[in-house]
Backbone:
């Protein structure tokens, strides 16, 4: 029963990550398109962005089964996965990248903002629990 609960919990976290990241992507995309950097969003683009966010969430879900102990490696790996999937889907699957420096500067900023926002909102509770457990471990080691 515990294993089933863990899988369900991971699926719910992946869905939360997907929905939060998609909301951030749409918000930032609309903002940047209003500046004239990205093309205006339409239904097709919104669906393409949704599938891209879903692909990122799916790979992050799979990575969640690996025990990554270092926060630095965790962030680099998860952000790297996000960037690779966005670039792959943007260049090869949907062909919606504009080839100029301003576009890629804004895209990089958007990737960082979406990653940070998604992580903080979707995984903040987990991060707090990990910090509490680490503090208990530190206190236990000090008292020995």
Residues:
């Amino acid at each position: 029963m515990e294993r089933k609960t863990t899988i369900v919990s991971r699926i719910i976290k992946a869905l939360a990550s997907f929905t939060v990241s998609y909301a951030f992507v749409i918000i930032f995309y609309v903002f940047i398109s209003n500046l004239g950097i990205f093309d205006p969003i339409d239904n097709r683009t919104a669906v393409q962005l949704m599938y891209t966010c879903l692909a990122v969430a799916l790979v992050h879900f799979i990575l969640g089964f690996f025990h990554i102990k270092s926060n630095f490696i965790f962030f680099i790996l998860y952000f790297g996965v996000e960037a690779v999937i966005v670039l792959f889907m943007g260049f090869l699957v949907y062909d919606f990248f504009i080839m100029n420096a301003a576009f890629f500067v804004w895209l990089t900023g958007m990737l960082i903002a979406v990653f940070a926002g998604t992580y903080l909102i979707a995984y903040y509770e987990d991060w707090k629990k990990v910090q509490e457990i680490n503090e208990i471990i530190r206190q236990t080691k000090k008292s020995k």
